[in-house]
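This is your field. Please look over both lines of this record.
***
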Amino acid sequence: MFTGPVRYFDCFTSKPGGGNAVAIVTDASGMDASAMQTAASDIGTPATCFLERVEADCVHARFFSPRSEYKMCGHAVIGLFTMLLQDQHIAPGAHLSLATPGRISPVYVEILGKRSPRIMLELALPTFYPSGVKSTEITELLKIPLQALSRPYPVQVAEADFRQLLVPLAGPGELSQIVPNFLDIAAFCKARQIDSVAAFSPPEPNVPNNYKIREFCPAIGVDESAAAGTTNATVSCYLAAQGALTGHDQMTVHTTAHQGAEVGRPSVIHSELRFDGRQIVGVRTGGTAVETNRLS
């Protein structure tokens, strides 16, 4: 059992008990990947962040689920940089770099008046492909009727930090109809070499650029995610590509995703898309976090 110092944060929320939980091992400087994976499995949170070191404006860290290493983990980044801000290792308004194996990612600490600063993470733009999955396969997998699928928008596979099946539904009510069998979803994902299935309801006219989402990821160690920054950055890019967002004539478009209510951990994820004409040239995702516990 891992016994080192750990701090816990709920991310993409301003209240304990919401959002997605991350455990942060505050000194992982002497740990290799095997030791990190063992510790993450012992700790058991959806993500464990291992802080290796902080150098000037660059933070070195790695992220693990109980089962495997994540290339990137949006909610863990929010928790990590919130902790560093609390401990005054970084300053409000800072522009920093996050170093993970094989990449450097920009991170921004945004000041929002009297509210808690918001951490925003720059992510890779996704690529979209035809899914090759029949509608009946999806409805059988999610236990929903055929009419629950959204007609205007196609089911696609998206690839960025994760490879995901994107399933647009007819409306927010259809999300609550899903009855996930996690063993079946895990087998489906492994057979098609995808990490997760993300089902979402596109924005409605009375709440532009707001949408609801559920993501199922048992193949990588989490049955249903309460909040996922990387996924919502991808879904926001998908919605923009499908013409489902307002503000395409602007250089920057903001989206708000609502996730986690079905697992009792409501979350709010913000994404920011930057455009050159009608082409997406950048995407950030982020939110706020709150500390819930410390073990020394």
